[in-house]
Specification:
Elements (H helix, E strand, L loop, with lengths): L1 H15 L27 H7 L1 H7 L7 H7 L1 H9 L9 H7 L2 E4 L2 E4 L6 H5 L6 H4 L12 H13 L8 H12 L4 H5 L11 H5 L20 H24 L6 H23 L3 H10 L9 H21 L27
Antiparallel strand pairs: 1-2
Helix pairs in contact: 1-16, 2-3, 4-5, 10-13, 13-14, 13-16, 14-15, 15-16
């Protein structure tokens, strides 16, 4: 059984391009992250026309005006001064993660005062029309095949849908693990948030209320939460390993991310002990004895690539239904991030 799964895994990894040549740069970019093409950002107004209930939730979250507090805070001003940034609200180093960058002529501006729809779901110019047109019919009249084709084409055009758990996880982590060494070491910015995908995605930012027309805002199913927990750990781990493997010196950026990796390794080890899964076993084999030292950056880069290969395969091969062993490890509802505005 194991050899069959391993064979399937290798085929999937090869098809998805997750196996990288060892000659490639160790800091090869992952498929998602901050920096969606600002020229293709259209702004949240068009999204909220159809997603009014989701927009209403968003307006009550810290994401809504995330950059407003930054440029008014002493901490934000101190970081800007250290980085020689004149205007936080015009600097891509800031707005890539604290806002949503949009191109206006030759300038980059904010599409809103915070992290809006396209920061999480992808710049919409290429997929907005297709994703919402119901294949030229009225809502509810499409065939199953037409719906599948519409979503497939929207995804191919850059839309990140909630079902794309790995891509969504990477996108979240790409800002919650700060991706700039100088910003941390020189600017004094934190190296990232105390992020965990289940508790953060199911808390105040949750907006699973489209189909109920705002009547319900349901927590993700137990199967999805299992996937969120495991994929979230591995997506964070691959980015943290890339960060340390490309660090230029022993500053806070390298040190904090190395410590973050140790925590993540313990979490993944707990998952490995809770379930019998070949992709998790492969990932643990790659990192079990990994030393977090700047003298060991080549090994870290190699391990990062194995984590990438493992998480890609895991995301394809698992639907969460047989992963009940991780249930005791999942965040409890009372620990979800920001039960209401101003909470945790």
């Amino acid at each position: 059984m194991y050899s069959k799964l391993l064979f399937i895994t290798l085929i999937i990894i090869t098809l998805t391009g997750a196996i990288y040549s060892t000659d490639e740069a160790s800091d090869q970019a992952l498929p998602t992250g901050p920096g969606f093409d600002p020229a293709k950002v259209i702004g949240p107004v068009e999204c909220i026309e159809c997603h009014k209930h989701s927009g209403g939730v968003w307006e009550q979250t810290p994401h809504h005006e995330s950059i407003t507090g930054v440029h008014r805070s002493k901490e934000g001003q101190d970081i800007a001064k250290a980085m020689k940034i004149k205007r936080i609200t015009r600097e891509s180093l800031c707005i890539d993660c604290h806002g949503t960058a949009q191109q206006s002529g030759e300038k980059i501006i904010l599409s809103s005062n915070g992290i809006s729809c396209e920061s999480c779901h992808g710049a919409a110019a290429d997929w907005m029309k297709r994703h919402g047109e119901f294949s030229g019919k009225q809502e509810g009249e499409e065939t199953t095949e037409e719906i599948a084709a519409r979503w497939k084409e929207s995804e191919a055009a850059g839309m990140l849908r909630p079902s794309m758990i790995l891509e969504i996880a990477r996108n979240c982590v790409s800002c919650h693990v700060v991706p700039h060494e100088d910003l941390v070491n020189t600017g004094g910015h934190s190296s990232g948030s105390d992020f965990e995908l289940v508790s953060w995605s199911q808390g105040i930012v949750r907006h699973n209320n489209f189909h109920s027309k705002g009547k319900d805002n349901k927590v993700a199913s137990i199967d999805k939460r299992r996937l969120f927990h495991i994929i979230g750990i591995m997506a964070e781990m691959e980015i943290v390993l890339q960060a340390v493997s490309t660090a230029k010196g022993k500053g806070n950026y390298a040190v904090k991310n190395a410590k973050r990796f140790i925590v993540l390794r313990k979490k993944l080890d707990a998952v490995n002990k809770a379930i019998d899964n070949p992709q998790i076993q492969e990932a643990m084999a790659a990192i079990a004895n990994l030393k977090m030292s700047l003298k060991n950056q080549d090994a870290m880069a190699t391990a990062a690539k194995q984590i990438t290969a493992s998480v890609v395969a895991f995301a394809v091969l698992n639907d969460g239904s047989s992963l009940e062993g991780v249930d005791p490890l999942l965040a409890k509802a009372e620990d979800y991030r920001g039960v209401k505005p101003g909470a945790k």
